[in-house]
Amino acid sequence: MMNAVVKLVSGHLGPVEIGFFRQIFSMIPVISLVMRQGGPSILRTRRPFGHLFRGLIGNSAMIIFFLSVAKLPLADANALSFASPLFVTALSMPLLGEAVGRHRWTAVAIGFAGVLVMTNPSGNWFSGGSGVGAGMGVLAAFMSALMTITIRQLSKTEAPVTIVFYFATIGSIVFGSLLGLFWVRPTIWEWVGLGAVGLIGGLSQLVMTYAYRHAPASTLAPFGYVSILWSTLFGFLIWDQLPGPRVMVGSAIVILSGLYIIYREMRVQPRVVARPLSEAL
CA torsion sign, 82 to 85 to 88 to 90? Predict the structure, then answer.
């Protein structure tokens, strides 16, 4: 939903401006939850540099993905984001010290082959605006994987609402400092869209952060594949766009690779019993 609204307003507004208001309006649900959970005291942190790194990486990934959404059909941009779980698995060994066996490495390699099918580097699709959009999508997926691993580490000591609060705060400061260079006056409906982007984005960040606190990142990441259904539906209803054959074949390869990684994770790791979100909230 957020990406669909971003695409609607990106024809007139730039990614920095969208990112700034995404973070500003996302503070509404975040601050409401802070007050419910004890007020400003919950924002005390022992990991300031961890929050700074997560904030810079996460906000950079968001802006780069917004660029991809602006230049590609919604479903295509969303399909490229499916590379993120593959990057999570590939990075979990050097960054988290997790053992990754030959089965999962094979699945990662096959998944990246699916990404190449989607981007079609040997053809004319990977050129011009579409080429920039594809490159931005893959880069955003890599940076999102770094963000996911960072959230997993921060969640060991930090409350989910604390992580999201500093993410939004850092983004607001960075984008706010650049806003004067990219400012375009929004229309009334674009203000509505910016508000929707922030509210939806803030709520989704909270739910995602709670999820990563209670289950391994490599286990949760493939659940994002469901988003291809929604992005395809929104793309068809709003822009009359459907993913092309290469995107469909490539995304199918990436999804199957991700599901196999999940299968292997469930076999080699003990099951994590998570509290329901309603209890966490």
Answer: negative
Model's pTM, two decimal places? Answer: 0.83
Domain that holds residue 28: 2-280
Confidence (pLDDT) at 276: 42
Q: How confident is the model at residue 261 (pLDDT cuts 50, 70, 90)?
A: confident
Domain tally for the chain? 1
